[in-house]
Amino acid sequence: GRGVLSRAMAALGAYRCIECNREAAELYRDYQRGVLRISICKSCQKPVDKYIEYDPVIILINAILCKAQAYRHILFNTKINIHGKLCIFCLLCEAYLRWLQLQDSSQNTDPDDLIRYAKEWDFYRMFGIASLEQTSFLVGIFITLWWMRPEMLKTKSDFILLLKALLLSSYGKLLLIPAVIWEHDYTPLCLAFIKVFVLISNSQAIRVTLNLNRMLPWLAIFFGLILENGVVYLFQKMGWDV
């Protein structure tokens, strides 16, 4: 139950104070009979994690507002392993959006089986391109951070934690589907806002995970975008619609 998970994570030193980012031995103390007391951080003298008493909806709203405390709660003080599935689903959303735009630009309405097969292949191709672009973006971020602050990414667990944070913080891409379903004249503007929101979330995830200032995460994201756009340019030179 929750007590077993709490003891396991405490043994690994996985807890963090959501206010000052210092390690904590426990999030709360269980006095039995349903009496819990939130632990106080020895460094900042504030509750280690006030969100353990909050409703998940409130936590989600705080995460959408890009509050560092909410990000620390999710990344360090909870056991969430949906980053892989979330990444695949976001890529499917992006691939579907590109595939839909490609179909809109095509005037061929022939119901022939060969045409339907070609359209299906187009979706798989868009998924592959979206995956390569996402990989290039992440590689650009990792290379920049490793070059600027190599002490921050010394172990495999450091890389895995940052990768998990980046994938989880890309949840804003899920808004691509409703933006397309409820299509209107402002759809391109909505897509631009979604892109900006995802980048802001990525920046906050890097900042919280590595405990950095605001400048370096944005620098890493900038180089990640350069590498991603380089891949897009390469595909365009090959004559592919992206």
Could you describe the 3D structure shown?
InterPro entries: Arv1 (IPR007290). This is Protein ARV. Belongs to the ARV1 family. There is one protein chain. This protein is mainly α and 242 residues long. It has two domains: 1-78, no CATH class; 79-236, no CATH class. It contains nine helices and two strands. It has helices at 2-11, 56-64, 68-76, 83-105, 113-148, 156-168, 176-181, 187-210, 215-237; strands spanning 28-30, 36-38. A two-stranded antiparallel sheet has the order 1-2. β1 (28-30) and β2 form a beta hairpin.
Strand order of the largest sheet: 1-2
Give Rg in angstroms: 21 Å
The portion of residues forming beta strands comes to under 5%
Number of helices: 9
Structural class: mainly alpha
State the gist of this model.
By secondary structure, the protein is mainly α. It is 63% helix and 2% strand.
Keywords:
single chain; mainly alpha; 2 domains; two-stranded antiparallel ribbon; 9 helices; membrane; lipid transport
